[in-house]
């Protein structure tokens, strides 16, 4: 069991990655210290359950934009309203330190840097922005001394805790130079600072940070260092070096979409030299102490809010599941948007995988069955109607790998052949499906049918003249009957016609009337199928 993790700086609850698409994190004016993140906090953000499932129970909701972006608030990740989620309504004012050649981070201040402008001119412009902030802080001090009859000014009133040093300016910087300039500015105007900066840059000013007792919110731990002269591991090892230098640190993931990765930022720092105990402090009690709420959250002690997590192992390990998350003593459900999507597409993947396997089986099974069919088999003792010559009585057909190897009455059956007893059967060349029927013994057996006609009937049927000799009227009537019976023979038109003629011949024989009936021409192919028997 551990104290719930605290994200020291994030827009979670102020911006949402989901379909709702709200965004209340940044304002366009330069000075917005009167704006409170507390009242803009959305408890129904889809990012909140995702981060909560990974052990995060509290965030410092931090607005941006302009130079002074607004008041940060410490918020629990549970509640129906922002009042229920509030731990501390205001813990400091955000300060986007102006860059030389640019405006305040987050969109305020200047309008970009022209490539041909001199450094001195750009620095002068940046210093002018700092002078505006300094004058506003001086006005706040004068406002505090004005007495109860003063006219209310929300901007100056929101800066009173800053000039009284009860709350810090939460200052976002990007480089070592900006860290040093921000500390110099804080000394000049007499305010407290909390620096939020990439760890690799903060390490370069570690001695100054220690001297001035300025805590650091370490950003971008999982990002490779990009500044010139920094080794590739600068971001990973920075937290350990800052702690070694005596600087108090906390971890933060500003992005609401990636805030769930907060424990892994600490884990990466542990891998590069940060003691594990210090990493856990940087996720819990250090954050609470930096923002003045250590009497309520950040550790497991009597009297504090029961923000706890229970894990099955080290919570900094990516493989460790968080089994329970409690916020204010209430167990949080594990449901979240990412879990819902995982389960949805996991089921879809299973369905797709089953469909793929079924399709693969349907594709491969005929070849597998064909592989199981013997390469050599023989039909022995059958009457063979070759269509290329006279019928052969009591003959044998040998088929090897789908090809007829031998036909005749004296053919010897190979020793490795699968033998089919053809006694009483008649083999005739198949029409369009002959190749299919010649593929294997199993198919042969299904295709073979015992005939009901006698040898005399066969000879009489074979002796009939070519169908072209029949009258056109008779051929048209016969064609209609054959097409009507075609479905009974699997679409085989010739087999349907042959069956019709045999029935007609048998009927005329019973009535002692034997007119000459035409027979159908049989296709002369090299493969063999067995004619279907009459019903």
Provide an overview of this structure.
The protein is α/β, with parallel strands linked by helices. It has three domains: 2-111 and 119-334, TIM Barrel (Alpha-Beta Barrel); 336-372; 376-530, no CATH class. It has 19 helices and 18 strands. Helix 10 links the parallel strand 8 and strand 9. The two termini are 81 Å apart. The relative contact order is 0.09. The model is unreliable at 103-113, 432-455 and 512-535 (pLDDT under 50).
In total, the number of strands is 18
Helical content, roughly? 25-40%
By CATH, the topology of the largest domain is TIM Barrel
Structural class: alpha/beta
| Rg over CA atoms | 45 Å
End-to-end separation in angstroms reads: 81 Å
Widest sheet: strand order?
2-3-4-5-6-7-8-9
Features:
single chain, alpha/beta, TIM Barrel, six-stranded mixed beta sheet, 18 strands
In short:
This protein has helices at residues 37-40, 47-52, 82-85, 119-144, 154-158, 160-163, 176-189, 199-204, 206-212, 234-244, 262-271, 276-283, 285-290, 337-372, 434-437, 441-447, 455-462, 472-485, 493-510; strands at residues 2-3, 5-10, 56-61, 68-76, 86-96, 169-172, 193-198, 216-219, 249-251, 308-311, 322-327, 330-331, 376-384, 392-400, 403-408, 418-421, 426-428, 529-530. The chain is of the alpha/beta class and 535 residues long. Strands 2-3-4-5-6-7-8-9 form an eight-stranded mixed β-sheet.
